[in-house]
Armadillo repeat containing 2
Amino acid sequence: MSLMELQDKSEHVYISTGLRRQTSAEIVSEARRSLRTLATRRPFTPQEKHRQLFGESSSRAHDGRPPSAFSLYAQHFEAPDSRPGSGTRLSPLEHKPSLSVSLDEDGGVEDATLPKPPAERGNTRIGSGGSRARLLRAASINRLPPMTPNTKSKKKNKPVEQIGFCLFQKTILIGDAVSDEIVGELCNACSGLHNALAERGMLGRQCKKRSAILRTLFRLIDVGSDRLNLTIAKLILALNVSGNNLLNICKLVFKISRNASNDTLFLNGCILDSLLSLLHCEDVWSKGEAVLYCVGSLKLISGNTALSRLLLSKGFISVLLQLSKRLMHGPSTSVTAVLRNIADQSESRPSFLSNKSFSTLCLILENHRSDIDICINVARIFSKLSTYTECCHALAETPRCCSLFLDLLGKYSRKQDLVVRLLFTLGNLTAKCTEARERVYEEEGGIDVLLDLFQVYQETPSPPEQFHASEREDVLVKLIRLLANLAIHPTVGTALAANTLCVQLLLEVLECRCVQDSEELLVNAVATINNLSFYQGMSSVVRAQHTHISQLLLKLLLSSSMDVVLEATRVFGNLSQIKDVRHFIMQHKGYVVTLLDSKTPDVCFSACGVLINLSADPDNRAMLRAEGTVQKLIDCLRDFGPQDWHLAAVVCQTLWNCSLDGELQHAEELLEILWLYTDRGALQWPSDGGVRQVQEACWELLFLPVAEKLRQSFHIEDTTVIIP
């Protein structure tokens, strides 16, 4: 691990003053750690091209599911508190009313003050497929009629104009355009009526003239303005409609939400509160399909970042989780789809954590494990949230989450989009949580499930191929990363290193893939072999196949990818403890020595690890010196020392071993550098306190002891001790 990595660790450790500061010994212990977790990109989810109730990739059959596209007009709404509507068009008003609205003694709206629904027209019927150009017999309007107080009102000086509601004065063609000015006035009138009714406690079913108001509002839907319809929908929901009218008003809101250009209407209006209130009501289970369209609307608009954040501020996650508990066998697909969108926002993490959402989501997953759409939605939520450490720990503490993931991986092994996300999430858990590594390993058949997946996605595809080559590779990248993270646990690592199938599958990746086409896959495969090579007991298959592995690694050292070269060098650092491997490397020693010319500290560090093992053999030291190893090591010390004291310490160890049986070349140059680097006062330290502590710990505990011993060796004629 380089100092840059240590600095990253120190920033994490010292940001919060409430966290215990690491001791110098702990910092050095972390720096010496050779087993590493792997990171990778989160699986990419393309945004759906079209806004619809069910996603384009939904597995649900189109037959029998609620539609995303439909037409809605006034005729689809039923007269409140009466028999279902017949679909007959209403005849127009034939006069110009000067609207006067007042409240009666009981807070109701007087009959004389409200527009009356027109009488039925004899033979005019418009079916569900009727044209919007049919006549309503209302003439075009230039301005809405003035609203004047009713002098008959028993309550004087009431601001009745606040609750005045205006209809069209004259007949118009529904298909004719209505000016933005008229739409604005109608919206203001609806809002004014809403506010007035709210002030007098007449919302819900309390208003005596509720039926007349609703009939009037239903007629205005045919104006065809999304802005007006959203304003109308807010008022209709506030009047507590039910049955078919509730369903249709939710469908109307959904229809408006399908157009992304209408997002500003949702952002600027207050319809969101009305929709959340509907989902929050006690008898939400009785709302039927209306809830589906309500949640569908929220799903579509939650893809907008600003709206998503606004919903978060309104406690949206809590509402959805409560809804999912009440409707555990209801519209969970839409609920999980909305949560999936919300999880994109980093601001959502506190809400997910505080509402114990992980246990609820796992319960949904368990109850709907046969519903692939719900499984994929929840997997996407987990893949997003598990990129954050605190969410990883919360998920890892959720009972049976690892067991549930492994069960789904076995059940849906061919569902690439689900498999890749579950593997990514498990990889995140095992990167951060020791308990997660234990649970995956201890789950009966868990490792077998992973190796079965490895075989499925590794094998040569046969027609018809179910998924693209890039999709297969993405699964392998996530799967191999998971194995690497599991191998950090001593028990799991020992078992995987002794698993013939596991090692063989990893070696097949090295044999069959090229760096140009599969760089990340190769990096992960070699890094996993590196972690497994740490366990070199008698049962280790990696140790048993060291010759074949060494041959494969040698090819990778010639790669143009520095990441691949680095991982291959790290494996040689472990395997070079084996005498036969040291002999193999010395036959190609030029490759390792050349790595010291790298401008990458991590590569130089790993190369020094190999050279330390090689120079432990007396027969190898003279050959290494002849390759110019000493000068290259001195150059590394000069270039990287003050920035990476751990690397400087390893360089000094390598120089010590190289000088054990002969005079060290370039001794004067080396001695000058050592005098400078062992003088604490002559060194420049970072101003940042946390970073400085890391550097001083590595300098004092790692570099200084070996540097002073190397400096003193210039005055000792017989140097025979090898630095371990």
User: Anything to note?
Assistant: The chain has a mean pLDDT of 79. The longest strand covers residues 120-125.
